[in-house]
């Protein structure tokens, strides 16, 4: 699929340019290809093009695709959408990294089930930096309280970092609208322990990943950018 390859190459070039402009190593930014609306042949095409990090919004679709795709080459599956507690047990064995732990109740459920299953899942805590009612996640103050209390209560979970989403914005307003949110997440991460304690910052999607990289994103979640024009191809 030449168009898929062109789209992926363009995305990688933009990631590299944004990282270089920020004085960062482009290799420190992971492209997570979101497969929520992707056809199976597009997903296989991404694997053929060397993509190894795939993201799904729904746990059921993640586990189904993880079962269908070949084990070689290996895929690192990222759960990027909301997770209901009754989906945790099936999700954990398949997910390399869960980006969307948005409450202490969900974190406790993941820890309990991980202990029962003998797993040590890697998770990110979702922060609602923008304060929008439409977005889930911990408030900054809730995260401060959680970190102050410590994670001894959750011995089976590895908290690797933070995730956020910026408000939707028109293309000419992205930097003004999104960048302060991404800066806010980075500043919160620094306050809670810095990059050694929390090495992963998952922020930035197809419409706003460049300001996210400028503010320190280590993982950007791209979907529509990769599949543009494929329906007509």
UniProtKB/TrEMBL annotation:
The keyword Ribosomal protein does not apply. Residues 7-228 form the Alanine racemase N-terminal domain. Transmembrane segments: none annotated. Keywords: Pyridoxal phosphate. The modification N6-(pyridoxal phosphate)lysine is found at residue 36. Pyridoxal 5'-phosphate (PLP)-binding protein, which is involved in PLP homeostasis. Belongs to the pyridoxal phosphate-binding protein YggS/PROSC family. This is Pyridoxal phosphate homeostasis protein.
């Amino acid at each position: 699929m030449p168009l898929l390859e062109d789209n992926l190459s363009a995305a990688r070039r933009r990631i590299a340019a944004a990282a270089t402009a920020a004085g960062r190593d482009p290799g420190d930014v992971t492209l997570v290809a979101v497969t929520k609306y992707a056809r199976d042949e597009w997903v296989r095409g991404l694997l053929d093009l060397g993509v190894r990090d795939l993201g799904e919004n729904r746990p059921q679709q993640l586990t189904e695709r993880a079962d269908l795709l070949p084990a070689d080459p290996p895929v690192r599956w990222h759960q990027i959408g909301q997770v209901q507690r009754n989906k945790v047990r099936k999700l954990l064995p398949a997910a390399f990294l869960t980006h969307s732990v948005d409450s202490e109740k969900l974190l406790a459920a993941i820890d309990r089930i991980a202990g029962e299953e003998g797993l040590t899942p890697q998770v990110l805590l979702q922060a609602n930096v923008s304060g929008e009612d439409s977005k889930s996640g911990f408030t900054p103050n809730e995260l401060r309280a959680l970190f102050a209390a410590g994670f001894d209560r959750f011995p089976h979970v590895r908290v690797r970092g933070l995730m956020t989403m910026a408000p939707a914005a028109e293309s000419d307003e992205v930097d003004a609208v999104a960048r302060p949110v991404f800066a806010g997440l980075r500043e919160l991460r620094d306050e809670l322990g810095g990059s050694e304690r929390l090495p992963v910052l998952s922020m930035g999607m197809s419409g706003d990943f460049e300001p996210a990289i400028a503010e320190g994103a280590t993982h950007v979640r791209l979907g529509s950018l990769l599949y543009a024009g494929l329906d007509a191809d």
